[in-house]
Specification:
Layout: E1 2-7, E2 12-17, E3 23-25, H1 40-47, E4 73-77, H2 81-86, E5 96-100, E6 105-106, E7 112-114, E8 121-122, E9 125-131, E10 147-154, E11 157-158, H3 159-164, H4 170-173, E12 179-180, E13 185-186, E14 196-201, E15 204-210, H5 218-225, E16 236-238, E17 260-265, E18 269-277
Parallel strand pairs: 4-16, 6-12, 7-18
Antiparallel strand pairs: 1-2, 1-13, 2-3, 4-5, 8-11, 9-10, 9-16, 14-15, 14-17, 17-18
Amino acid sequence: MRLVRYGNLLSKLPGLIDETGQMRDLSRTIGDVNGDALWPDALDHIARIPLKDLAPVEQPVRLGPPVANIGKIIGVGLNYRDHAAEAKMEVPKEPTLFLKATSAVCGPADDLVIPREGKSVDWEVELGVVIGTPGAYIEEQDALAHVAGYCVGIDFSEREFQFNRGGQGFKGKSADSFAPLGPWLVTEGIDPQALTLQLSVNGAIRQYGKTSEMIFSVAALIAYISKFMSLQPGDVILTGTPAGVGMGMDPKTYLKAGDLVEATIEGLGTQTHRVINAA
């Protein structure tokens, strides 16, 4: 299934995209696409609903992030060898983890807002993994059974905030609009290690990579993270980015108002963001 959330900024309804591309309303079936709806039994229940019982949604309509009430966003740094090389950092022996504030979450076509003091906002397309079954101390061979679905994610970063504002990288990762998710959450038929990622800025391709090139696989990441914290339904893991970020260019190149960022992951859809300055 492709699960979505649609509506205006203040009110979003759950829905799904059927095989013909038609959006259908799920609001009479579930309250929202949140942790409660992402358990395996809940997803099975949604999948069994006859499409004729789900009213079509008139389009166009604004899409929000496909998951509501996210408990935590766990980022993974330097999970592609080529990105570690361009950052001039050693390949990590264990996954490098950080958190992004959940207030950074936005929809797949919302504006990217440069913070008032921001001068070095960078892009990082990433495979997003959404947890459906909770767990701690998860074995790697069991890890993918804890996944509800996958989505496109971008880990936008303000590099000055990340590296030069008191040593807390969290500051550079958490501005409003810095964690767009979607357009939808795909719950089946996805091999997380067989996907192509691409990001362009103003039509020029900046990043291109394959999830098969990850240093630590999705299953390995889930098992590793669960050693340090429990994973709960609706939690999101951003699994790292391939080479091609602005920080790695010569000269360094960062986003400015008026730029257009487009990010695509095979089978998971495309995000489009116009860059604006904060009010």
